[in-house]
User: What shape does this take?
Amino acid sequence: MEGRPHVQHYLELARLHRRLLIGVPLAAAALAFAVSLYLLLSAPVFTASTKVTVKPSDAELSFSRRFVRSSSSDAANVVTQTHIEYLTSREIASRVAGRLDAKFGAEAAAKPASGGLIGALRAIKGTVKRGLRVINSGRFVEVPAEEKRIAAIRKAIRIDIVESSYIMKIEARWDDPEIAAEIANVVAQEYRRRASEEAVDQVGTMSSYLEQRRREAEAGLADLRQQEADLRRKLGIVDLPAQRAALLARRDGTEVKLQDDLIELSASRVKVAALSQNDTGLRRSGLSPEMQLELSMSELATLELERRIADREQTLAATEAALTQLSGKEAPLVRIADRIAQAEEKINDISQRLLTLDLARSEGLDAIRIVDPARPALYPDSPKVLVNTMAAAIAGLMLALIAVLLRDATSRSAATRADLGEVPGTRSLPALRPSDVALTRRRLGGPERPDPLSPGRMVAGLGEGLGERLGGRRLGSSFAARRWPSLRGHLGALRLRALRDHVLAPLAGLKPDPEGGARVVIDYSSDRRAALAGRILEQLAPSRGRTFLGSFIDDRLWSRLPRQAGEVIVTLGRDEITIDELSEVVGVVARRLGAPVFLVFVDG
Assistant: This one.
């Protein structure tokens, strides 16, 4: 509701509905405690867990990388989910059942039929399930006992993954701790066995394929080498590199000697030319015999050099031709040599891959490890009596709060002081508590007594009752409203504060009218409640004028009221009237009497 002081309003709602807010959580907690205790004594559930490493295949890793690259998922989660689906399949559950039969026997490993309340509930559940199946499908097929046991084992297995890792946590829940531990261990062992078989099969298939490819490559290499030998014989090449080196050396040596001969030839020609210039052909003026002999020898040397140079040039040309011919023979041999090198490289690569597969085969079995084998639990995992009781209490409290808040949200009835504050032209006063109203009733003989009471008797009755209930002492009739501080020694500060708040506080705004105006106390539905409230108000805040009491259900009310009043006090109970109706009634009273209107709840 708009305009309400929320904190005070809801605190008052909680106080008003305290029985509901306390009773519902207590009832829920008691029920949860009883059911949990019964289940703990009759059908406890034990949990055993083990952890095992996950070994993804290359295909799974490749797929997970491509999948994760386009999403926000974790690669480990994508891979392990596939393994989880396999481990929770019927195949694994059937193998687990077989292992349990072998170790514990078929009767011991079977899920025992529960008796008592649990058996009755399961029978009711089965009957309802059969009825629904007949309605939906037209018939009901009874499942064999073995299939039921396998279904129970599948239901008992729970597998989680350790976040961002290749580790799975396998849990099994059963009413026997040893069977629960055995189920978890068997599932882990079955996963290890399956992964090992897959690794061996995968490596064996790949190894067979690579061995076949290596044999084919070796056969091709042998054929290439035979072709190379045949070609060498055909071309007359024994050792191509040696022949090439010999020809190159021959060419280089011939070129060097040719250069030397050319130099000598040039020098010889110069010498012959110089000697020939001095020869005049005359006996007296010509060359000497020695010079003639030297000229002849030089000419012969020149001719010899020219002949030798010609021979060397022919040898050099023949060598170049031989090199050219050798190069032409080398091309097919080079091609075959390249093919041989490729074949050898291919064989080496296949051999390396086979070695890697052999290492993977030996390491694959060790890669899948059971990190922490399951052990029989010492204590049952379910039910948790204290946890269930606290959770039920909290749930009951939440339900009660929701009920109170829904009722408050959907209702316009006046239930709290904040609701009274929504009535225009009025002032709301704190409510009179049930304990104080009941105490006043007892001390004054009930609200039906018609005789007026003096202020001294009223205050004395309140004081005596409060003293008997809280202080264990009797307060005398000399007690007066002005002497509230003297109660500290008898009632204590806390009770004194509560007495002021809930008995005197409603009258804090009421002051005696100096002109003796009348006080009007009108209750919404009860003359008795109006009389009780009027007496309490009169004794705690006496009015100098007359006090008129009545209720809105009295047909003579308007004829008995004065024409004008000093103050009007309207009393009512919780949820008796809506705010809109109360506003209308209060408006009529205010216009009729022309006095300030006070609203107060009377609880009791």
Q: What stands out?
A: DSSP finds 19 helices and nine strands in the chain. The longest strand covers residues 46-53. Residues 446-515 have pLDDT under 50 and may be disordered. The beta strands are 46-53, 157-161, 167-174, 370-372, 426-432, 519-523, 547-551, 567-572, 597-602.
